[in-house]
Specification:
Radius of gyration: 18 Å
Helix content: 40-55%
Strand content: 5-15%
Number of strands: 8
Shape: globular
Structural class: alpha/beta
Length: 284
């Protein structure tokens, strides 16, 4: 099945009242696992590569080409997305490589500078048919630089979306990146207010810290794209540790990366099921 535009998956989920699962790729095993998990669930999925991951691999292209190849071989619709890019040059490279969308993160900048930089990025990406997600109100936890108490203001969000032309908006509503426990407390009243304030889909970052029931509630309140990274990395690492504890003499990495890949696939299948459950009944 060919790659699909990110907007097709996100807008389709919003129309159905469900959540669109977006999962971060760290290495090729993640990409393979996320696709396998989506195939088992029979649901579309978004593969994401962050600027940090591109830096880890030395550049975007090697991991991007592997991820794009995995997506093109999938039996379900798959989109590929650049996550948390602060570098315009990296955004341009992702567009050249064939990504369906980018998340341009200028949220560290003052509001007016964020708006201007995002608007410029939107102009470039839309000229190539690429969706743009932006962030307003820093989502806590990323690199320890964000204040976890920050929240996105609905009136500011309305103005920002109108002024920049972004296609989706990541908002700060109580979740934090890199959470190892699933006990984040989301402000669902704020989610609903933001949903009513802007015409574009809302994106929940830091979803690894949100429990299953609250993910369903968040989608019901107005979230559409749901980003997950740390939760998958926990499953991956746990499987590696378990294998090496039971087989201490293992030296072939395929022996422990295989179980880790399976663990991530199972987590993706589960989460995609959660994002599709009961949400249509809850959305107003």
């Amino acid at each position: 099945m060919p790659l699909v535009p990110t907007g097709e998956i996100v807008l389709g989920a919003r129309a159905a009242g469900t959540g669109a699962g977006a999962f971060n790729v760290v290495q090729i095993e993640h990409a393979q696992a996320i696709v396998a998990g989506a195939e088992a669930a029979g649901r579309p999925v978004i593969l994401q590569i962050s600027e940090n991951t591109a830096r880890y691999h030395g550049s975007l292209e090697p991991i991007a080409l592997a991820t794009l190849a995995s997506a093109r071989r999938a039996a379900v619709p798959v989109a590929v997305h650049l996550d948390h890019a602060e570098s315009p040059a990296l955004v341009h490279e992702a567009v050249r490589l064939g990504f369906g969308s980018v998340m341009f993160d200028a949220s560290r900048l003052p509001y007016r500078e964020n708006l201007a930089a995002t608007r410029e990025t939107v102009g470039h990406c839309h000229g190539h048919g690429v969706w743009v997600e932006a962030e307003l109100g820093e989502v806590g936890g990323k690199d320890g630089a964000h204040a976890p108490g920050v929240r996105t203001d609905p009136d500011e969000a309305r103005h920002f979306v109108a002024a920049t032309g972004v296609d989706a908006l990541a908002v700060a509503v109580g979740s934090s990146h890199a959470m190892l426990t699933r006990d984040a407390v989301l402000d669902l009243t704020l989610v609903a207010a933001l949903r009513d304030a802007v015409p574009v889909p809302l994106v929940l970052h830091g979803s690894s810290g949100v429990g299953d029931a609250d993910l369903v509630r968040a989608v019901g309140a107005g979230m559409t794209k749901v980003n997950v990274a740390t939760h998958l990395n926990k499953a991956f690492t746990r499987a590696v540790r378990d294998h090496l504890r039971e087989h201490a003499g293992t030296v072939d990495p395929r022996r422990y990366l295989g179980p880790a890949r399976t663990a991530v696939a199972e987590a993706v299948t589960h989460l995609l099921g959660v994002l599709g459950s009961d949400a249509p009944l809850m959305r107003r």
